Amino acid sequence: MESKININNISISVKEAGTGPDMILIHGIFATKEIMNPLFDYYKKNYHVISYDVRGHGESDKPEKLTLEDYTKDLAAIVDYYNLQKPAVVGLSMGSYITLRAAELYPDLFSKIVLIGTRGKGEISLMEKAVEENGGDRNIDLKQMGQLISKRVYPPNTTPEQIAEYYRGNRGKVELTNKQRANIYASLARYDMMSDIDNVEIPVLLLVGEFDGLNPPEESQKVHDALKESHLEVVKGAGHIIFFEKKDEVVSLIDNFL
User: pLDDT at residue 135 above 60?
Assistant: First the structure.
């Protein structure tokens, strides 16, 4: 079931299915809830699963000013809105930043969290890398920048046909404008979850693809080393969106953790 809910004075697009323990899935930057479909469709069989478009994305409202703290407050508000009981949360890339930050600010909110393709702090260095790849042109179109960054998402030798198949049924309907993309980039201009990471008391599973060129395994390792109770798995043969290439292995690792 898909619906719109009003929290924190904005409208959020939500997909919900299944019964059982509560689980929340959170997508990455510029994506939508649909990219989490491989996990959503698997876990709705045994969990009450909620997947949503982060503010600024998809069919949710797109205020001009966005911050990581806004995203985090929205996650906490969703837990409250649905009266969820210590849900497990699975966050991909930007979704993992939101998840980790929420676990720091609200230590009793979740039971366990899964961080996929994460890093503990950053300054959108990927934008700089994309500019470098474009010959230093800082007037690069933001959509073009996204295309340059996407080269870092998939394992080597991934074909266009494979990428098209990955996104079949896993892509949202809304195309972001350059301005909306710029607002999202600005929301993560400087983020830092490492300073308060000692607040995280719950178990954490970190998963990262061997060929993740956005947030490579060494970034997950830094977060793993800083956490009190965590387990890190590097998924061989996978890129940034590890459940595209290695869904069965990923759900097995998450199942064992949960």
Answer: no
